[in-house]
Amino acid sequence: MILLALLAFSWTPLEHSARPSNRGAALDPPFFVGEMQHIVPQEKLPFSPAETATPVLDSAQTRLYVGTRNGAVRCLFRGKTAWTFQAGGAILAAPLVEGETLYVAGGDGVVYALNRFSGALRWRADLREELTTQPTASEGRLFV
User: What would the pLDDT profile of 78-87 be if each residue is shown by its tens digit?
Assistant: First the structure.
């Protein structure tokens, strides 16, 4: 059934040339293959070569939070680093934004609760076990 639905889509083939095209190819909505547009100027940050934690946007989509293998948690605001918090171990999973708090599960076995605007440590809980999954919250409770 799914295969038939996929075959029913019409499509426009991409152009093939030695030089990349900046036009892209439009498929039936919601698909589009094309070039990424930069909203803010690019800034190279000193991240480790291969990060595994997924960056997370806040609900207003104005701040980006990312954890690194070297234990840094960074907040990017308008394309610039707003603050950096140094955890005790690698950050291997995406942080969680909940209200004014950013929850980070550290590879050192510690859950960090940070003020999402300043990066200040609100509290920490040592679970003594490597944490590799994103925290989640429900009904005022935090699950890791």
Answer: 888 999 999 9
